[in-house]
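Ops channel
N.P.: pipeline sanity check, posting one input/output pair.
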């Protein structure tokens, strides 16, 4: 009986440890404006599939203060209140405000981080944003320090910014996350990795976008070897495993083949693939678009990732199997968890099967075993 009790306690403790792993769900709120079955709002979110909901994006004013990029959606439609209101369903859910993103770029971030007054404006406005709206923390998505209009001083200034935010957040228990470029070439240019790791709650590593049509050939968006190399680099530079969150792209990068008969990985391409019906951007297809296409699909074992093609259209993406591979690696490295970019491009309506197949595959590995 004592032995049985000990086993049960151990099992419960093991489940508790697994349940603490992060599943950070980024949400591009602009998907509200998509048409038809691409439209996505708060009602489409299952708050039990995420430990963190990252509300994207807020911007930065010239004086360093944080600003809403869509006040009508954020406040008039009440998206922020509705997002924070999901905590009434799942009291353990953390809702974060995300500042930055690709379109925000680097210039304003760089100017703010390098100026004491602007940093204080940023921090004070962050505190006001979190307090006034019920957010649980902040996520900084600076793409990227020392690039895209930034400068070398960004590396040290980013550390200073994070340290000052951490100190300001401490009395309130707010979380501080960052989203970072993944590969060694990008990361070594932009970050003092061991220094920034000291000041953040977790680090979302954007382990995707490893191939683009601008390369002139088809390639995998997130091949397993590139994901592993990136995470191993961050670990080797002093980022603790228990702060690293592995990124999963719920979308594919698409290409227009130069010759439709040459449809293999590495085949020549003449540009981006055609825009999807929902996402509307060339070179980019949500998983919810890809799974409906019924293209010929191949799972490439060398890259642990699928690709699909039809005529001169070619796309590399993640499916349930490749996501499982990534989660096995995250578990093997004892990482903090996984994040997804982004909720509104999973098959959230379940048109190809069950709803949220990729997000559920992550949870099955990290939290529900």
């Amino acid at each position: 009986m004592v032995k049985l009790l000990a086993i049960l306690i151990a099992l419960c403790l093991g489940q508790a440890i697994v349940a603490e792993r992060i599943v950070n769900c980024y949400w591009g709120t602009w998907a509200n404006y998509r048409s038809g079955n691409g439209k996505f709002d708060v009602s489409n979110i299952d708050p039990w599939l995420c430990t963190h909901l990252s509300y994207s994006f807020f911007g930065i004013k010239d004086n360093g203060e944080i600003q809403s990029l869509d006040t009508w959606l954020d406040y008039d439609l009440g998206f922020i209140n509705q997002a924070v209101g999901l905590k009434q369903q799942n009291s353990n859910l953390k809702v974060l405000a995300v500042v930055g993103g690709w379109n925000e770029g680097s210039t304003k971030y760089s100017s703010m981080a390098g100026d004491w007054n602007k940093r204080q404006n940023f921090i004070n406005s962050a505190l006001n944003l979190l307090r006034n709206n019920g957010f649980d923390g902040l996520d900084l998505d600076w793409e990227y320090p020392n690039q895209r209009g930034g400068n070398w001083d960004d590396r040290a200034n980013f550390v200073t910014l994070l340290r000052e935010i951490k100190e300001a957040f401490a009395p309130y228990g707010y979380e501080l996350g960052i989203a970072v470029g993944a590969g060694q070439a990008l990361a070594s240019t932009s970050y003092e990795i061991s220094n920034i790791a000291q000041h953040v709650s977790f680090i979302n590593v954007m382990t995707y976008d490893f191939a683009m049509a601008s390369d002139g050939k088809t390639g995998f968006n997130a091949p397993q070897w590139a994901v592993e190399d990136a995470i191993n680099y961050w670990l080797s530079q002093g980022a603790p495993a228990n702060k690293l969150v592995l990124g999963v792209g719920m979308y594919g990068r698409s290409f227009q083949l130069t010759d439709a008969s040459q449809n293999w990985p590495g085949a020549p391409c003449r540009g981006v693939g055609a825009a999807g019906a929902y996402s509307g951007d060339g070179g980019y297809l949500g998983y919810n678009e890809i799974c409906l296409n019924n293209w010929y699909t191949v799972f490439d074992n060398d890259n642990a990732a699928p690709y699909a093609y039809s005529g001169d259209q070619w796309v590399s993406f993640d499916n349930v199997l490749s996501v499982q591979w990534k989660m096995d690696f995250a578990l093997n490295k004892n990482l903090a968890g996984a994040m997804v970019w982004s909720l509104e491009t999973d098959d959230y309506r379940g048109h190809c099967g069950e709803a949220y197949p990729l997000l559920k595959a992550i949870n099955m590995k990290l939290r529900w075993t």
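N.P.: looks fine end to end. The radius of gyration is 21 Å.
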